[in-house]
Amino acid sequence: MDAKGKKEEKKEDGYSAEAHLIYGKMDDPKWDYSHHLLPPISASATFRLDSARRGAQGFAEFAHSSDELTVRSRAPIYIYDRLGEPNKDMLEENLAFAEGGDIAVTFTSGMAAVSGILGILTGAGSEILAHKTLYGCTYSLLTTWYPRLKIGAKFIDFTDINEVRRSITRSTRVLYVESPVNPTLRLIDLRAIAELAASVNKTRSDVDRIYTVVDSTFATPYCQRPIGLGIDFVVHSLTKGIGGFGTDIGGVVIGPRWSLDLLMLYRKDFGGVLSSKSAWPVLVQGLPSLALRMRQMQETAMIVAEFLSTRKEIECTRYPGLPSFNQAALARAQMVDYDGNFAPGAMIYFVMRGEKASDALAHAERFINHIAQNAYCITLAVSLGNIRTLVEHPGSMTHSAIPAEEQVAKGLDPGGIRLAIGLEKPGDIIKDLTFSLEAAG
Ligand SMILES: *Cc1c(COP(=O)(O)O)cnc(C)c1O
């Protein structure tokens, strides 16, 4: 306590993670919203500068976070929205907190965040080692665009740590995975990957070290925080579980302090900046309701997964919460909420039965079409982590950038279906599933 009886520590100290997701950092000279219950939408593309000197100082300070100690005691000099503005700053502060990282930089979409982090870590001659199953657009980025920049990509099985070790070369700069993998729900042992990178880095200098990047979109920070397991960078599509309501597209990179200036410069020059009008709903609705939504959705996911695993029309059901899940021990070790409880998430993957691949595919198509036309509580749509339950067929939709003849080798089943559980009651989702499974069988 100081002389006035005010606590010396920050107001938010000592409260739960969930409280921080609702309130964020209360006292910060970066924003002046102390009389608003909620921060208003910042809708100013440019900012008034009092003098040429102040303008020059603003430009000089941009992306020089080493000066931050001198800047921290007063409001920053905002110049232009693409360089930074209050809504995004507040959102980034809370996203960094949510993942346990030093800093967060938002982007206009999940893909802009993926290309942002890979953009600062690689250059001509670098190689990215990635898990063989990847979100379709990430796969397309690595195979369509990066060859033009002479950035190589190799796809291997990251569930086999020895294969990862054997595949690392002098050119390897990034180990890139999703966990849980979209859409198969395979898990990658993140601690093992971080330890492998750390041991290789012992023999490397700063310029050729390897960085680990995890796309944690399927988990959300409520269910897993890879930085705490030793991973360098986490990326998210804010469009999914963090945004939660499906109103806006966005992305974020969370990582160590040294990366802040590079990410800010990259975002400024490549221009994939998150609109303040899209940052705002994530800040005032998405993050504050994340814990509540995820708790409810994963409770429902468990019931729905158990239901699916009893159905004769289905070959196999994969959900990290099921006792039959083939990586159950890893799931319990790395998917935990802020209180340390097991948090297997709200995504389910299941494969329709069929004697041949073409039969399974046809079965999946009949099932999906029946849902699209008849279901009330399940919608055929891509995206996930929404308050509405969504279903899709990855092979022909989200992962169609992976050529059909390579899909099976890349872990995608022709009859595979992705189900993203929402906030409906389990009985309502099961009612729709039962009806369509019977009709398609
Ligand atoms: C949706 C998604 C992305 C891309 O995010 P956008 O916001 O659509 O650009 C990246 N990775 C995963 C795992 C996703 O599900």
Described by its quaternary structure, the protein is: single chain
Which small compounds were modeled alongside the protein? pyridoxal-5'-phosphate
Backbone shape? globular
Rg, Cα atoms, Å: 23 Å
Number of domains: 2
**% residues in beta strands:** 5-15%
The assigned CATH architecture of the largest domain is 3-Layer(aba) Sandwich
Helix count from the secondary structure assignment: 15
CATH class of the largest domain: Alpha Beta
What's the total count of β strands? 12
Helix vs. strand class: alpha/beta
Please mark out the parts with pLDDT under 50 across 5 or more consecutive residues, or reply none: none
The CATH topology assignment of the largest domain is Aspartate Aminotransferase, domain 2
Mean pLDDT figure:
93
| Share of helical residues | 25-40%
Task: Record the strand order, biggest sheet.
Answer: 1-7-6-5-4-2-3
